[in-house]
Amino acid sequence: MTMAETMSGPTFVTRAQVITSDTSVMRGHGTYQEDKAIVSAVAGVVEQVNKLITVRPLRARYAGEIGDVVVGRITEVGQRRWKVDVNARQDGVLLLSSVNLPGGVQRRKSESDELQMRKFFTEGDMLVAEAQAFFQDGAMSIHTRSLKYGKLRNGVLVVVPPSLVLRSRSHFHTLANGIEVIIGLNGYIWVCKRASKAPEQMEPDELYADVNEEIGQQERDTIARICNCLRGMADRQISIDYTKLAAAYEASLGHSAKELLQANVMETVLDTAMTRM
After folding, report:
1. Where does the K Homology domain start and stop, copy by copy (predicted)?
2. Are residues 125 and 117 in contact, defined by beta-carbon separation less than 8 angstroms?
């Protein structure tokens, strides 16, 4: 019997720890074989699918897949492309041909567009995009052609280990007081006030505006509360998706956002939230 079968919750192992001596199972990523035993090669969580055992590292750089929703920060403006920090081994690449420019998605990108690239995205800008492909050197190519992707404003970035973020049907969510949460699979999570206009209602220049809207005190408190819940979940190695975040948010309403910074308060909130699920 494997360790994964003997415990109801996640099984954590350290490096070089024996996972199982069962010869009927197969070893996967994060493991190696020593004599007849399967041993963990990294510290992480044991996962078993049928007869295959793997260990998911607790700390690892993001390794993306095509179709992933990622949140990133522009680090460099180059020739017909932007470099984007996506929390991976290499910066992602956003080509000028892969963005939704004013005047229509399908129109050809001209020389004037190349000269105005900093009007669309400049260093330090936050954006949400989708992984489109991978170059031969392993760098990720991303795109923002859909109106649900693009420049991010009115919010705060929370960084969590990518291994904790669960794949979901949707990574765009709305919580209380009109606060939106974009859970990037790369471990970058954007918590923001919902824009007063939907993207399809915006003028072309508004899509790439740099000015944040005014954020009220109640909205600020909600943003702070959500951010503190996310950081608390990450500190305690709790996997993150909308369902668990919403449960943690609801459980936190009995305390102020500031009180959630106290370790004992956050512990109580998360215990309550996980019990309700």
Report:
1. 155-195
2. no
In a domain, 41, yes or no: yes
pLDDT in tens, the chain (277 residues): 445 443 344 678 899 999 999 888 999 989 999 988 999 998 888 888 888 999 988 777 888 899 999 999 999 999 899 999 999 989 999 999 898 866 554 556 667 778 888 989 999 999 999 999 999 988 999 999 888 999 999 999 999 999 889 999 999 999 988 899 999 999 999 999 998 888 777 877 788 888 899 999 999 999 999 999 999 999 998 999 999 999 999 999 999 999 999 999 999 999 999 887 7
- Give me the domain span that covers residue 48: 3-57
- What's the CA gap between 133 and 136, in Å, rounded? 10
Domain total for the chain? 1
Q: Within a domain: residue 21?
A: yes
Contact 88, 63 (CB under 8 A): yes
Identify the CATH number of the domain in which residue 43 sits: 2.40.50.100
Quickly list DSSP for 233-267: HHHTT--B-HHHHHHHHHHGGGS-TTGGGSHHHHH
Residue closest to 190 by CA, chosen among 77, 81, 87, 72: 72
Residue 14 lies in a domain: yes
